[in-house]
Design a protein that fits this description.
Layout: E1 8-12, H1 17-27, E2 32-37, H2 40-50, E3 55-59, H3 65-79, E4 84-87, H4 102-130, E5 133-137, H5 150-170, E6 176-182, H6 204-215, E7 225-228
Parallel strand pairs: 1-2, 1-4, 2-3, 4-5, 5-6, 6-7
Length: 236
């Protein structure tokens, strides 16, 4: 098992849900973790919940590359290295295509797709130095289309394609690149309120375990695209 102690990770959308759970998993391994969110309020709440000096909170909108460059600069100033990046920030707006607004479309493309590009562009030179790991959080919606999902499908199909191509570009530098494609996860996504009704779903900490598995994989092996779904579907 690899020793991850004092390695540095950056997680976008790390103030709640999957990002928060992954951060906690990595902290439990002795890593130092930077999390970002779009508001100071969300960042402050997460920092209070983590209650450790091993977490750096940053306000950043991944739709703006300047924000992501600033985030990486703060991480490098504080810890001098960057070993793992999880591009996790995402949004979902679901509506028939004739009813979807331009604002809803652009929000998903700007955050879900352009956001992973911005995060990678901001961090890639730092990852080259550590031969680090870049992971995107896509979705099963990145290969499975569904009604009222045109915008979300477009963004997540794009994330899967972007990540796989980036993997081919960056492995020459010793950088590993993977995309994780979860199905239903018990989070606040799409205005859900997680409770006992979500017990059948993937839990956020399960994705944390999956990220940890990737980081501890033998250097010669790269699981580049990972689909993950609940073991049993909901009984309706």
């Amino acid at each position: 098992m690899k020793d991850l102690k004092n390695k540095v990770a950056y997680i976008t959308g790390g103030t709640k849900g999957i990002g928060f759970a992954v951060a906690q998993t990595l902290l439990n391994q002795g890593m130092r973790v930077a999390i970002s969110g779009r508001s100071q309020e969300s960042v402050d709440k997460a920092l209070k919940d983590f209650n450790t000096d091993a977490v750096l909170g940053i306000v950043s909108d991944v739709a703006k590359i300047a924000d992501e460059k600033n985030a990486v600069s703060k991480i490098m100033d504080k810890w001098g290295q960057l070993d793992v990046v999880l591009a996790n920030a995402g949004v979902g707006n679901f509506a028939p295509i004739d009813q979807m607004t331009e604002e809803e479309w652009h929000q998903m493309i700007d955050i879900n797709l352009s956001g992973v590009f911005h995060t990678l562009k901001a961090s890639v030179e730092s990852l080259k130095k550590t031969e680090g790991y870049y992971i995107t959080l896509a979705s099963l919606a990145g290969t499975n289309f569904f009604a009222q999902g045109a915008g979300y499908n477009a963004s997540k199909f794009g994330v899967v394609g972007f990540t796989q191509a980036a993997m081919l570009d960056l492995r020459q530098y010793g950088i590993k690149v993977s995309t994780i494609m979860p199905g239903s996860v018990a989070t606040h996504f799409n205005h859900n309120e997680p409770d006992e009704k979500d017990a059948w779903k993937i839990q956020p900490e399960d994705i944390g375990e999956l990220v940890l598995d990737l980081l501890q994989m033998n250097e010669r092996t790269l699981p580049s695209k990972i689909e993950v779904r609940p073991t049993r579907p909901d009984k309706k």
